[in-house]
Design brief:
This protein has about 120 residues and is of the alpha+beta class. It has helices at about 1-15, 40-50, 55-60, 80-85, 90, 105-115, and strands spanning about 30-35, 60, 70-75, 95-100.
Amino acid sequence: MRRTLLASIAVAAALCLVPTGAEAGQGKSTFLVTTTHTPEQCLAALDEMGAKNKKLLSQMEWGCKAGDHTGYAFLQAADGQAAMGMLPEKNRATAKAVKVTKYTPKQLAEIHKMMGK
């Protein structure tokens, strides 16, 4: 078990070392931003989003019709706080911004090389 834990930690560390997004010189990172509301708040939450930023409203994907009153968007921002700042203030109370990363096959190969050392 200890060996598995150490291997998992090593893989996590290796993934953090491969430059992507902002680390590769793009200046901004990608964040998955989610914001939730109740069924009773639904129309008001959508209206607030549209009033704050029509482009942002069109970028959001909503689960409301499926009973999941959550908005989802992949946004480019300097940091999580900046990503959250794109939302209307009322939506920020339930919002979350998670930095996400895509890996290329080349980067994955580099991780395997680093793990082989």
